[in-house]
Amino acid sequence: MELWVELLSHFLCSFTSERLLVFLQFKYKLLPMN
Questions:
Q1: Mind spelling out the 3-state secondary structure of the chain?
Q2: This prediction's pTM
Q3: Least buried of 8, 12, 28, 33, by fewest C-beta within 10 Å?
Q4: Which domain holds residue 24?
Q5: What's the distance, Cα to Cα, between the start and end of the chain in Å?
Q6: What is the tally of structural domains in the chain?
Q7: Could you give phi then psi for residue 31, rounded to 5 degrees?
Q8: pLDDT tens digits for 1-34?
Q9: What is the rounded distance in angstroms from the CA atom of residue 9 to the CA atom of residue 2?
């Protein structure tokens, strides 16, 4: 049970960080390059 919770939390953490990274890249692409 604990292993399942640990795997689930790890998956959610990696998923959210990945989405955040994509969001940041998208945001920086929209910024004007000086």
A1: CHHHHHHHHHHHHHHHHHHHHHHHHHHHHHCCCC
A2: 0.52
A3: 33
A4: 1-34
A5: 52
A6: 1
A7: -70, 140
A8: 699 999 999 999 999 999 999 999 988 888 766 5
A9: 11
The CA distance from 23 to 19, in Å, is: 6
How many beta carbons lie within 10 A of that of residue 13, not counting itself? 10
User: What is the residue whose two structure tokens read 């689930």?
Assistant: 8
Q: What angle do CA 3, 18, 16 make, to 5 degrees?
A: 55
CA 10 to chain centre: 12
Q: In the prediction, which pLDDT does 22 show?
A: 92
What span, in angstroms and rounded, lies between the C-alpha atoms of 32 and 20? 20
